[in-house]
Amino acid sequence: VKMILNGNITERTEIKIDLEDRGYQFGDGVYEVIRVYNGVLFTADEHLNRLEASARSIHLTMPCSTVEMKEQLLQLVEENKLDTGIIYLQITRGVSPRNHLFPGAEVGPVYIAYTRELASPTAAMENGVKTITVEDIRWLRCDIKSLNLLPNLLAKQKASENGCFEALQHRNGTVTEGSSSNVSIVVNGEVKTHPANNLILNGISRQVMIRLCTDNQIAVKEEIYTVEDLIGADEVFLTGTTTEVMPIIEIDGKKIGNGAPGPITRQIQTLFKAEIEKQCGQ
Ligand SMILES: Cc1ncc(COP(=O)(O)O)c(CN[C@@H]2CONC2=O)c1O
């Protein structure tokens, strides 16, 4: 299996990551997860543009243009004959003796990418999933897709230990997002999801969902809502690259709506699936 190291397609076994890589020592880097269906990258430009924005936000120099990066990713998918799965890619600030201060310009970024087979979560999307709610203890730049995922890991681990799929985070009573997904509610036929600001990651799937709702006369608002609104909603669903459109049927042990995926969520699932087929073929 091949992977990319600093733009070169390399055997996975050849890869050596230095122990003084700042990604390893400080989490000093940014990342993306891009979906591949039928060997075709889904919403690749949106992900690569966000990667560039995340890098800029932490003053990290991109190793190459997003155009070059996309070319390399397409080649990697080809080399690994990936049909349905994901590409994981990350860029760190590079290898340098441990020091909080940024290294000099002579130290370049370290950029890696690899592919992984991953089926769509069809059963979970059909049946719906259970979640818990947790306090959002993250910093105030959640819009940057950085490697600093400890709070996300702790939240997801707590969900799993409670037999749940995801943890829905809230800050001072306002619902923000999942540990690795965005979350939306449906009340009286209208979709509501947290505005794209510093308190959430502006998910690509979230953006696709909003566009699909708008284009198909489903009322959608980017507006904050509370944990009470969440529990009392008619429908709740997640969006994310590996989550797609995921109905939530129970939160903190309380049934959502009638305890089954709702009609608006089903409609959005159908629209999202059509969008995948439009971009990536059958
Ligand atoms: C904190 C957080 N919010 C929202 C999302 C959804 O954003 P996208 O729609 O752009 O995927 C992710 C995706 N996290 C990636 C996706 O899969 N695994 C991850 O870590 C995320 O980590």
Write a concise keyword list for the protein shown above.
8 helices; D-amino Acid Aminotransferase, Chain A, domain 2; binds the ligand Cc1ncc(COP(=O)(O)O)c(CN[C@@H]2CONC2=O)c1O; D-amino Acid Aminotransferase, Chain A, domain 1; about 280 residues; alpha+beta; about 30% helix; 2 domains; 6-stranded antiparallel beta sheet
Please specify the SSE layout and strand pairing.
Blueprint (H helix, E strand, L loop, with lengths): L1 E4 L2 E4 L10 H5 L2 E9 L2 E2 L2 H14 L8 H14 L5 E8 L17 E8 L4 H6 L1 E7 L14 H12 L4 E6 L2 E5 L3 E6 L2 E4 L10 H12 L4 E3 L4 H5 L3 E6 L3 E8 L2 E2 L7 H18 L2
The structure holds ligand DCS.
Account of the protein in words:
The chain is of the alpha+beta class and 282 residues long. It has two domains: 2-117, Aminotransferase class 4, branched-chain amino acid transferase, N-terminal domain (D-amino Acid Aminotransferase, Chain A, domain 1); 122-280, D-amino Acid Aminotransferase, subunit A, domain 2 (D-amino Acid Aminotransferase, Chain A, domain 2). Helix content is 30%, strand content 29%. The protein has helices at residues 22-26, 44-57, 66-79, 122-127, 150-161, 204-215, 227-231, 263-280, and strands at residues 2-5, 8-11, 29-37, 40-41, 85-92, 110-117, 129-135, 166-171, 174-178, 182-187, 190-193, 220-222, 235-240, 244-251, 254-255. The chain is globular and about 55 Å long. The ligand Cc1ncc(COP(=O)(O)O)c(CN[C@@H]2CONC2=O)c1O is lined by residues 33, 152, 177, 180-182, 201, 203-206, 239-242. Residues 33, 152, 177, 180-182, 201, 203-206, 239-242 line the site of the ligand Cc1ncc(COP(=O)(O)O)c(CN[C@@H]2CONC2=O)c1O.
